[in-house]
Amino acid sequence: MPGHAADPTGEVKGSTLERVRALILDASGIVLGDNKASMVRARLSKRLAATGHGCIEAYLDFVERADDGTERNNLVSAMTTNVTHFFREAHHFDQLRRIGLDARATGQKLNIWSAGCSSGQEPFSIAMTLADAGFPPRDVRILATDIDSHILALASRAIYPRREIQAIPPGHRAKSVLVEGEDARIAPVLRSMVDFRLTNLVGDWSFSTPFDVIFCRNVAIYFDPPTQAQLWSRMVGALRPGGWLFVGHSERLPDRLLTQVRYAGQTTYKKIKAEGGTAR
Questions:
Q1: What radius of gyration, in Å, describes the C-alpha atoms of the chain?
Q2: CA–CA separation, 247 vs 66, rounded Å?
């Protein structure tokens, strides 16, 4: 039918666009709006070229029939936008430093999750902050997860263009980065603090040990409201009492969760402790 077909160089609209949206939503929880049609076309064209398909409909048939889900993951990776830099939203790292200093003083170990870690700048900023606070690397575990397997492979290399490290405060930079020509490599001791793992935030994830700190910033904004609400509820559930949750500048938790967490600063929440049944 006119307006319901697509090719690598044409428009993506009608039922074809709806089919792509449904695939991405089902696989990742990400919502592709009407304004994303041009982006979808451009990124689909790359997947068609990579898989040797001549039209989008045939490619989508292939994705839906694929047994191991590899190309479905490749499609999700193609549709995700990875925008990040070191020490983004610096006030979160100021608070993390205070958390690290308090934990070091009491001999507490820290379990931290960087959810939606993209190419690794966030978890390595976490590692730099704690190392600078004198927190022993052996006493911290930083889990860094993302849905994009390709970007995780880049993150695990811990190598960045030299120009990107300009966002790292000079005091951290000198101790944390090894410059090699036009590349900058994260110091091995910091790399050892981070465990990268492929995780779909709307999938069936669970962790045996609760987290002291969760960074989940500028991730939920890509989900529809019901998925956002479910994600925030699960994030709060994954925190230990007294644990901290850092969110993006345009994100906020639903009011119903404010019985479990309290607002603790700009885009910052702290899980409420209960003593003798009384929240504080």
A1: 21
A2: 35
Catalytic status, residue 146: yes
Catalytic residue status for 43? yes
Q: Is 1:50 a contact under the CB 8 Å cutoff?
A: no
| Catalytic hit among 47, 146, 148, 212 | 146
All structural domains of the chain with their residue ranges: 14-79, 90-271
Predicted local confidence at residue 17, as pLDDT = 85
Q: What CATH class has 90-271?
A: alpha beta
Instruction: Give 258's DSSP letter.
Output: G
Binding-site sequence positions for S-adenosyl-L-methionine:
82, 84, 88, 122, 146, 200-201, 217-218
Give the Cα separation of 126 and 118 in Å (integer): 14
Tokens of 14: 């009608």
Q: What is the mean pLDDT of the chain?
A: 89
Looking at 43, 72, 148, 212, which residue is catalytic? 43
> Annotated binding site, which residues?
82, 84, 88, 122, 146, 200-201, 217-218
pTM metric for this prediction: 0.85
Q: What is the pLDDT of residues 135-169, one digit of tens each?
A: 999 999 999 999 988 899 999 999 999 999 999 99
Residue 30 has pLDDT above 50, yes or no: yes
Fold of 14-79: Chemotaxis Receptor Methyltransferase Cher; domain 1 (1.10.155)
